[in-house]
Design brief:
Order of helices and strands: HHHHEEHHHHHEEHH
Distance between the termini: 39 Å
Bound molecules: zinc ion
Oligomer: single chain
Largest sheet: 2 strands, antiparallel
Shape: elongated
Number of domains: 3
Length: 253
């Protein structure tokens, strides 16, 4: 595992999270590393992962080096492994998703801004439907915070195809933009502070778990945590003595 990897920068963290977004719960560490490497492998191309904005982000690095960075992301609680049958899949942790959600909403906004400048006709808005609700509401919030009336036609087109709850937010945003509502940036400032906090990550720590059987506390070390995670085990519930005792009783019976 990548314990030697130095601290990753905010750009690195967000790039790895962006790539992970393409394969969440559907691909493992190797596939994630291949997106970042810019691999031309059949599977990567068949899944159109070469269209991801961070495809080839680490094109000059060796695959194993990229894997180390991914392991660092797992160790520092940005990504996690979840087993789908026997296959270990990459998933977001809460912290990882909080960051990725924010960047993803920015990406959508940057896209609208570009389309608007290029004078492109309004696209089929179905691409925004059925996405993570929190991320979509954040995106609408960010549109509102631009105070830019030129986004109203996009919002109107989107409103036609959305679900009721999202529609209510879209309508409110249209009204706010239309009426030149003063922009309230307090929410944005708070979000940014929380985002910066999340980006710090936290070093892996030993856990002190209370034993279900005897009530004593025992140490579940960082090293043990890694092994458990790799094998897809959940955290231990009993201390070593109690586990041993249970095993002996089991053998005796
Ligand atoms: Zn015990």
């Amino acid at each position: 595992m990548g314990s030697n990897t130095e601290y990753l920068s905010k750009n690195d963290i967000s790039a790895i999270l962006r790539a992970a977004d393409e394969i969440i719960a559907e691909g493992g560490r190797t596939l994630l590393a291949k997106i970042l490497k810019g691999s031309r492998e059949k599977k990567v191309l068949a899944l159109e992962l070469d269209a991801c904005p961070v495809y080839g982000y680490y094109k000059s690095e060796k695959l194993e080096k990229i894997m180390e960075k991914i392991d660092w992301m797992i160790d520092y609680d940005f990504l996690d492994i979840q087993y789908s049958g026997k296959l270990p899949m990459i998933v977001f942790t809460d912290r990882g998703w909080e960051i990725e959600r924010d960047f993803r909403a920015d990406e959508f906004l940057a896209e609208w801004s570009r389309w608007q400048k290029e004078g492109r006709p309004i696209p089929d808005m179905n691409y925004l439907k059925d996405r993570d609700r929190k991320m979509i509401l954040l995106f609408i919030r960010k549109v509102r915070e631009t105070g830019d009336k030129r986004y109203i036609p996009y919002l109107e087109a989107w409103n036609k195809i959305e679900y009721k709850k999202v529609q209510a937010e879209i309508k409110e945003t249209i009204n706010a933009l239309d009426s030149d509502e003063p922009i309230d940036l307090n929410g944005a400032l708070k979000r940014n502070a929380s985002l910066q906090e999340a980006l710090k990550g936290s070093a892996p720590q030993d856990l002190f778990i209370k034993c279900w059987e005897c009530g004593n506390r025992f140490t579940f070390t960082v090293g043990e945590q890694k092994i458990y995670k790799q094998k897809g085990f959940s955290d231990p519930k009993r201390c070593e003595e109690c586990r041993l005792e249970q095993k002996l009783i089991g053998e005796y019976l």
